[in-house]
Amino acid sequence: MKYFLTGGTGFIGGRVARQLREAGHEVVALVRDPAKAVDLAALGARLAAGDITDKATLRDPMTGVDGVFHVAGWYKIGVRNTDAGQRINVEGTRNVLETMRDLNIPRGVYTSTLAVNSDTHGQIVDEAYRYDGPHLSEYDRTKWAAHHDVAEPMAADGLPLVTVMPGLVYGPGDTSVMHDVMRQYLQRRLPMVPQQTAYCWAHVDDVARGHIVAMEQGREGESYMICGEPYTLVKALELAEQITGVPAPPLKVPPVMLKVGSALARAAELFTTLPAAYSSEGMRVSAGVTYLGDNSKARRELGYAPRPLAEGLRETLLHDLRQLEIQP
Question: Is-contact 194 253, C-beta < 8 A?
Fold first, then answer.
């Protein structure tokens, strides 16, 4: 099979490309600068210069493919200029899906996120749950708009699209804010950890596999939560301590303190730029919030089976320890 892929230079998209190539499929990867996509080229993917925000660059590389994986997205937290969120997450998604429709491509998978549901307040929700705002971050808002205002209506109109919803994705090679938190922990530079904050943790290779089985077996028009098991950040760091011997931060910060800190940071941001984790938005999305989803539907219909956090976190932390040249 021949697949068109966006986001192939990213964390999840790179693993999707690798797994597709290992299975013998052709991959046409859209990249802004082919000279910098050396990892994709090494996999044998065909590189096509273009950008999802420039619709004219999509038609030629998408012509004749058997399916589309639209993985590319903007996922910044705590940055001043958020214009790229609307341009990439919403309008870029519209460009890809409209081109898929216009070319009559028979199958597509769109990468959404559990973040469209924002803080679930401790509830583990399923695909039938819908949250309509207000949103905790511009990332949450723009992914919500892409999911509910673009992908969902187009699927309802007959676009043969399957939507997948990862939660917190971790693994070797991660470049997210959570990866920065874990590296600070390993370096014993993480001063505190928020109480109650919880995510559904899934290893990147399992999430990539979830994309591929969604392409192969997912029902058109349906969404699947390809997330992992729920863990608070406190419990995840306690697990990390068992794996590495590095003590978890002793200071556990209640949500109210982070909410106050977020308000103070908002005032400070009028005069200076704060690190992402300590920005107003960064503290707001950490203040006891829970991004939780139920993967039962994906397990039942797709055979999705993410590894336990203890297993995947061990691999990830030992990889980071080697990179940091720290002895466990």
Answer: yes
- Is there a domain that residue 190 lies in? no
Tally of domains within the chain? 1
Residue 39 counted as domain residue: yes
For residues 5 and 39, give the distance between their C-alpha atoms in angstroms, rounded to a whole number: 14
Domain that residue 111 falls in = 2-169+201-228+293-306
Residue 240, in any domain of the structure: no
**Confidence grade of residue 88 (pLDDT, cut at 50, 70, 90):** very high
With beta carbons less than 8 A apart as the criterion, state whether 35 and 41 touch: no
| Structure-block tokens of residue 123 | 């509830």
The SS3 of residue 232 is strand
Secondary structure class of 243 (helix, strand, coil): helix
DSSP 139: H
The residue type found at 288 is G
What is the widest separation between alpha-carbon atoms in the chain?
56
Does this model's pTM top 0.85?
A: yes
Residue 265 Cα distances to 109, 141, 273, 276, 281, angstroms: 38, 21, 10, 11, 9
H or E segment and range at residue 94: helix 93-102
Angle at 132 between CA 161 and CA 100, to 5 degrees: 20
Q: Which tokens go with 43?
A: 């996999």
**Torsions phi, psi of 203, nearest 5?**
-65, 140
Q: Which residues pair with 201 in a beta bridge?
A: 168, 229
Residue range 246-286, pLDDT digits in tens: 999 999 999 898 888 888 888 888 888 888 777 888 888 88
What CATH number is given to the structural domain containing 59? 3.40.50.720
CB contact at 8 A, 191 and 130: no
